[in-house]
């Protein structure tokens, strides 16, 4: 319950940030972009949904008092049942066997690999609080080499890069993850990274941009 409440609170904070910045959309965004969502699609409004879809809307994080849905499920909710499934996946994944340090680093790696600015910004403070060194986050941000990164952190970063970027994981990388976190832990790494990557893909499709004061991640040059 604490994790569910935490995700809901974080999503609510995103609502405030995005709404506050909605009127400040820079000229760089073209006419195909919605001024509030700063993306190619507008945020969904509860009043425009069917009664069945409103019931799903009412349990998703990111709802504003005005009945507008922003946050990490804003665009998945164009199919409300999919958004609810992703929300359930998220809750199951973060409730797994990984400790907060490993989980938050895994989230940051997934966000960087999918260029997912919204959750990168939302989780940066949580990662630092969980004990992830700022220098390690800088390596993730800049796609830097893993030389000098603590072995356990390097294992998480390497795991995510190979799975999400290379679409191939070598035996040594998988074996190290199992050695460090167990078989379930290795699969929980997959679950955590994939739930954030899934939301990141929606952000990629609609070309979501951050409100002023929350930086967009620059594309990785590969």
Detailed description of the structure:
The chain is an all-alpha fold. The chain contains 8 helices and 2 strands; from the N terminus they run αβαβαααααα. It has helices at residues 2-21, 51-57, 80-94, 100-113, 117-129, 134-142, 151-166, 171-206, and strands spanning 44-45, 68-69. The protein has a two-stranded antiparallel ribbon. Residues 12-27 have low confidence and may be disordered.
Summarize the structure.
This protein has 222 residues and is mostly helical.
Number of structural domains: 2
Helix content: 55-70%
Envelope shape:
globular
* Uncertain parts: 12-27
The strand count comes to 2
Instruction: Could you tell me the CATH topology label of the largest domain.
Output: AhpD-like
Cα gyration radius (Å) = 18 Å
Going across the major beta sheet, what is the strand order?
1-2
**Structural classification:** mainly alpha
Q: Alpha-carbon distance between the termini?
A: 40 Å
Overall pLDDT level: 90
- Second rung of CATH, namely the architecture of the largest domain: Up-down Bundle
Q: What is the CATH C level class of the largest domain, in words?
A: Mainly Alpha
State the helix count. Answer: 8
Strand content: under 5%
């Amino acid at each position: 319950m604490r994790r569910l409440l935490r995700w809901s609170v974080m999503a609510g904070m995103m609502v405030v940030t995005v709404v506050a910045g909605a009127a400040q959309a820079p000229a760089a965004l073209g006419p195909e972009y919605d001024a509030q969502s700063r993306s190619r699609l507008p945020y969904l409004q509860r009043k425009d949904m069917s009664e069945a879809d409103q019931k799903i809307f009412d349990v998703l994080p990111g709802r504003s008092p005005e009945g507008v849905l922003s946050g990490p499920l804003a665009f998945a909710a164009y199919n409300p049942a999919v958004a609810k499934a992703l929300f359930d996946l998220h809750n199951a994944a973060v409730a797994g066997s990984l400790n907060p340090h490993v989980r938050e680093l895994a989230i940051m790696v997934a966000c960087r690999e999918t260029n997912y600015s919204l959750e990168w910004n939302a989780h940066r403070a949580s990662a630092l609080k969980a004990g992830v060194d700022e220098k390690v986050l800088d390596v993730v941000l800049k796609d830097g080499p893993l030389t000098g990164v603590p072995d356990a952190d390097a294992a998480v970063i390497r795991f995510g890069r190979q799975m999400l970027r290379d679409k191939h994981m070598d035996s040594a990388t998988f074996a190290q993850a199992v050695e460090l976190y167990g078989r379930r832990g290795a699969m929980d790494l997959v679950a955590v990274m994939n739930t954030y990557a899934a939301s990141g893909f929606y952000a990629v499709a609609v070309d979501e941009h951050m409100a002023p004061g929350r930086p967009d991640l620059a594309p990785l040059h590969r």
